[in-house]
Amino acid sequence: MAKEIERKFLLESLPEFEPFETRHVIQGYLKTGADYEVRISNRLHLTTKSGFGLTREENIYNISGEVFEALWPLTEEKRIEKVRKWFNLPGGLVAELDIY
After folding, report:
1. Residue 23: its pLDDT value, please?
2. Quick check: 6 and 71 in contact, CB under 8 A?
3. Torsion angle (degrees, nearest 10) of CA 84, 58, 4, 19
4. 8 A C-beta contact, residue 48 and residue 35
5. Pairing mode, strands 36-41 and 21-32
6. Chunked in runs of 10, what are the mean pLDDT values of the chain (100 residues)?
7. 22 Cβ contact partners less than 8 Å away, ≥ 6 residues apart
8. Contact 74/40 with Cβ under 8 angstroms?
9. Fewer CB near the last or first residue (10 Å), C or N of the chain?
10. Cα dist. 17→49, 85, 86 in Å?
11. Complete DSSP assignment for the chain
């Protein structure tokens, strides 16, 4: 299992850095609870997250287009769309910015 350290901030303006990659992401949630979630995305990933707080367990599995198409109807009314941008930061760090 991988650990994810996630921080969320509400930005008043976009960073002045140029993103090195931008993608449109659609996610549908299959199951959510107080300490877990299971979702699929148009990037053909099934993601599980569990735990509380800023550091949680996260696993990402590649799925086929057929599996995505079979599961997608189960996410109706539990979907989000966003644009994800990746930025290089000083010190070799990378920031991901989701715009909803």
Report:
1. 93
2. no
3. -20
4. no
5. antiparallel
6. 74 81 95 92 95 87 97 96 91 87
7. 83, 84, 85, 86
8. no
9. C
10. 30, 11, 10
11. -EEEE------SS--SSPPSEEEEEEEEEEEE-SSEEEEEETTTEEEEEE-SSSEEEEEEEE--HHHHHHHGGGGTT-EEEEEEEEEE-GGG-EEEEEE-
Q: How many residues does the chain have?
A: 100
Instruction: Please state, in angstroms and rounded to a whole number, the distance separating the CA atoms of residues 9 and 44.
Output: 27
In the numeric block, which tokens belong to residue 65?
A: 């287009």
What local confidence, expressed as pLDDT, does residue 1 receive? Answer: 61
